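[Q] Does anyone have a clean structure-token version of this?
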Amino acid sequence: MDRRPAKNYFDNPNTKEDLKSRAIRGGGVVIGAQICKFLIKFLTTVVLARLITPEDFGLIAMVAAITNFIAMFNDMGLSMATVQQEEITQEQVSTLFWINLAVGAGLTALTIAIAPFVSRFYDSPRLRWITIVLASGFLIRGVSVQHQALLVRQMRYSALAVVEVLSILVGIALGILAAFRGMSYWSLIIMQLSTAFALSLGFWVACNWRPGVPVRGAGVRSMLQYGGNLTGFSVLNYFSRNLDNVLIGRYWGPQQLGFYDRAYQLMLFPITQFITPISSVAVPVLSRLQNEPERFKRYYFGALNLIAFIVCPLVAVMAVMSKEIILFLLGPQWGGASIIFKALAFVVFVQPLSSTVGWVYQSLGKTDRFMRWGMISAPIYSFSFIIGLRWGANGVAIAYTVCCYLLLLPTIFYAFKGTCLRMTDFFQSILCPVVIGLVMYPAMTIYRSSMTYLSPGYFLIGSIISVLFILLLIILAWPRARKEAYCVFENIKSFRYVVSSE
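[A] Here you go.
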């Protein structure tokens, strides 16, 4: 754990060599930690899907649709304000700490107060106590927001990785133990709260900074404005990420919501394991490069290309194999999720790419524009959910997909306006991996339809071999693909793309 003097957390790692070495080391550590978290969570998903029912997952998802909305106020965007600032002081961080703690306590009280209304809304008495117990998580998380932000600001990724992995292990161990003892949906609650508690405790141990008394006039007004705009976007964006869960749970019940929620989470699960390490490094580094347009542009589009190479071919294969993936990982009781899984694959094909515009808004301090875009996009996404609701969870998934593609160009155009970034560069960065994904889809469809006689084990092995063979053929036949694949391989190997100098 990090035992550096507390005052050093306010230093600005802004020299080219220091920034480069920190980013390279941090990127490697985060990728390693993310692989560990992926394997742990993947196995946990498989185990819990066999120990508790889709209805149990649906009950937690019903409450999560409400608590996730409230949780957006837990941080108030103040952690990113701490990370993004060029200079910061003890007085400022201490003041933000007490603000975060007060907000966490207030949100806990608010959530307990609305628990009866949540129960009535869904017409499920069990949800009252689920909501009350989960409310404590806001206070637990509020205690460590600034400690985590200081670790991110200084790119202390080793400490962050150790805390996160150990916390997940603690939560999963207690959750699975509870599930084995027949505690059904309570096992998911135990897993969530124990993970949150372990995280907060771990951040306090890893970061030896301690808050002082809040100071009036400490200069946090601009940071509060930055965080307020970021929170404003999150509130608006919530409707494009969670209103679908609320509507499905309210009108189609916990089983349909269980199918939808697990399909969405399972689709995103492998993708986020690759994207999270890149994103966690991207905002701190881009914040340090905000006054160097060429380096900013080169880093952003290099990271975007890497994400596209990971996402597009992988999602294309997952879309084709949707039924086999669901049945193999979750079991026959989850068969109703396969169609939803396939529809959401087309969302995930582009969503991780367009979501990188958030790096631009945050690192350049343009969170006011971020919030304004949320005011435009959130109602459109919400309307699409309402349109698709008539046809159940499947209809919502398809409507969401159509809406994502309609908003793709406006999302990028608005984010890049007034910056050094250009839309043509965006599409040039993703062209090659997108084409690979589009070729992979029909090729794997042919394989799937012609190999139905194979047993599940041989079918899975054949699928992996076929994907690698098709990918190799494309790379060998297309010089651009060969060149970009080589660059991606080199970037992953050495993490040089992070902030390569001139």
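[Q] Thanks! Anything notable?
[A] The chain is about 80% helix and 0% strand.
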